Amino acid sequence: MTIIISRSLIPSCCSTLASSSRLFTRSLASHAYMAPSPSPSSSSSPTSSLPIEATTTTPTDLTDEQRRLIDSIIRVDQAGELGANWIYRGQKWAMDVKGDKETAKQVEEMWENERHHLTILSHLQTQHRARPTMLYPLWQAMAFGLGASTGLLSKEAAMACTEAVETVIGEHYDDQLKALQPLLNPTDPSSPAPHPSLPLMADILKEFRDDELEHLDTAVEEGAQKAPGHSLLSAIIGVGCKVAIKVCEKV
Ligand SMILES: [Fe+2]
Ligand SMILES: [Fe+2]
């Protein structure tokens, strides 16, 4: 499935993005997980040419280090998407309390994206038998508090929160894509082709990175940089996100 996406801002942190035009198209790799269950006799997904192993099995030929990488990527991203869901939940609650229906609608639209991201990460976590973070309740409480407090402060503060979070997450998805490269393109020509779940995972990370950058765009367009104390707020939230990522890599 292909959709058209409008994007006005490509931050320098994510210079690996393929296009700098405002209007471009991209495929939704994550839809490989939204297809109906295949029949037992089928060898490929009913909606794509992907082999069925891409969405149902995990590679068995990885080194311990490569397995730890996959485990860490999925754990951090699942925790991050959980956090994003609770930030938007907090912002939506604040906008509802304040009666700001227009901002509530914008927040709800971005939240809908995050629900999809979390669903797909949960599929990946099950498929690859990755260990989820043990700090789920902590991330939920902190993320809701961040979303609600910035939302109650002002619409611009809520958008500054989104801008700061999505900047870090966009960079983080890019770092993960770089880390996956040796698994996708082994330097040894005699190495077997990568398990089909790995290029699919990389495509999903790219898709989600681009979604997060759209959220970043929306936040800037909606006045994030007009928030009082914008620089300080961005710095604090950005550092907080980086600390959370580091913790989730291990716990
Ligand atoms: Fe997300
Ligand atoms: Fe997002």
TrEMBL record:
Q: What EC number(s) has UniProt assigned to this enzyme?
A: 1.14.99.60
The primary location reported for this protein is mitochondrion
> Cross-referenced Pfam families, in alphabetical order?
COQ7
Entry's family note: Belongs to the COQ7 family.
PANTHER family xref list: 5-DEMETHOXYUBIQUINONE HYDROXYLASE, MITOCHONDRIAL (PTHR11237:SF4), COENZYME Q10 BIOSYNTHESIS PROTEIN 7 (PTHR11237)
Query: Which GO molecular function entries does the Swiss-Prot or TrEMBL record give?
Result: 3-demethoxyubiquinol 3-hydroxylase activity; metal ion binding; oxidoreductase activity, acting on paired donors, with incorporation or reduction of molecular oxygen, NAD(P)H as one donor, and incorporation of one atom of oxygen
| Annotated residues for binding of Fe cation 2 | 114, 166, 212, 215
Name of the gene encoding the protein in the UniProt record:
COQ7
Q: Outline the subunit composition.
A: Component of a multi-subunit COQ enzyme complex, composed of at least COQ3, COQ4, COQ5, COQ6, COQ7 and COQ9.
Q: What protein does this entry describe?
A: 5-demethoxyubiquinone hydroxylase, mitochondrial
What ranges does the record list as Low complexity composition bias? 40-61
Any note on cofactor binding? Answer: Binds 2 iron ions per subunit.
Q: What does this protein do?
A: Catalyzes the hydroxylation of 2-polyprenyl-3-methyl-6-methoxy-1,4-benzoquinol (DMQH2) during ubiquinone biosynthesis. Has also a structural role in the COQ enzyme complex, stabilizing other COQ polypeptides.
Swiss-Prot/TrEMBL cofactor(s): Fe cation
Name where it's found: Mitochondrion inner membrane
The domain of life is Eukaryota
